Amino acid sequence: MASNELPTFVFSDYVKFFGAGALAATSTHAAATPIDVVKTRIQVDDALKGYNMVRAARQIVSKEGTAALLTGFGPTAMGYLAQGGAKFAGYEFFKKQYISLAGGIDKAVDRRTAIYLGASATAEFFADILLCPLEATRIRLVSQRGYASGLTTGFARMAREEGLRGSTPGSSPCCSSRCPSPWASSPCTRPSTR
């Protein structure tokens, strides 16, 4: 392939992009589940207000056991599997579309930063739509003890009691805080991979 030709990605390429993003996002976010549980509990549990992270974690473990630190692990893992995969595959998809819209590789070179930013933000937006219902489930599991036993029962309860609106109340803050993030990282990392 000449350097002035668009890559001809096939479905298996997008599967690889999805897999890479899913692995990266799932592993990092799932590993941080205990930190997120403690942080959320400090915010919503009056008994933990004013505690630091270590003291709050000890209190949670002493009252509920070590497993309490993994509350919400299922929605976190599944949410970031979908979000990370869609973001990585979506970035490559939208980048190719925006290069084509610019008139091809030769014309897109002068607009590459805008193309990288646009592809990143577009991919992040759609990926976050996949993430929001699972994040809403996770928040309920962590902040409302006894809400449900896990991902499936929590998601089903939220859907039954609140319908679609139950999974979307945090979508605006989620997108407004997450969509700008690739704008900063993409222009910084992209030149190093050329």
UniProtKB/TrEMBL annotation:
<keyword id="KW-0813">Transport</keyword>
<comment type="similarity">
    <text>Belongs to the mitochondrial carrier (TC 2.A.29) family.</text>
</comment>
<keyword id="KW-0496">Mitochondrion</keyword>
<dbReference type="InterPro" id="IPR044677">
    <property type="entry name" value="SLC25A3/Pic2/Mir1-like"/>
</dbReference>
<keyword id="KW-0812">Transmembrane</keyword>
<protein>
    <recommendedName>
        <fullName>Mitochondrial phosphate carrier protein</fullName>
    </recommendedName>
</protein>
<keyword id="KW-0472">Membrane</keyword>
<dbReference type="GO" id="GO:1990547">
    <property type="term" value="P:mitochondrial phosphate ion transmembrane transport"/>
</dbReference>
<feature type="compositionally biased region" description="Low complexity">
    <location>
        <begin position="167"/>
        <end position="188"/>
    </location>
</feature>
<dbReference type="Pfam" id="PF00153">
    <property type="entry name" value="Mito_carr"/>
</dbReference>
<dbReference type="InterPro" id="IPR023395">
    <property type="entry name" value="MCP_dom_sf"/>
</dbReference>
<feature type="repeat" description="Solcar">
    <location>
        <begin position="12"/>
        <end position="97"/>
    </location>
</feature>
<keyword id="KW-0999">Mitochondrion inner membrane</keyword>
<dbReference type="GO" id="GO:0005743">
    <property type="term" value="C:mitochondrial inner membrane"/>
</dbReference>
<keyword id="KW-0677">Repeat</keyword>
<dbReference type="GO" id="GO:0005315">
    <property type="term" value="F:phosphate transmembrane transporter activity"/>
</dbReference>
<dbReference type="InterPro" id="IPR018108">
    <property type="entry name" value="MCP_transmembrane"/>
</dbReference>
<keyword id="KW-1133">Transmembrane helix</keyword>
<feature type="region of interest" description="Disordered">
    <location>
        <begin position="162"/>
        <end position="194"/>
    </location>
</feature>
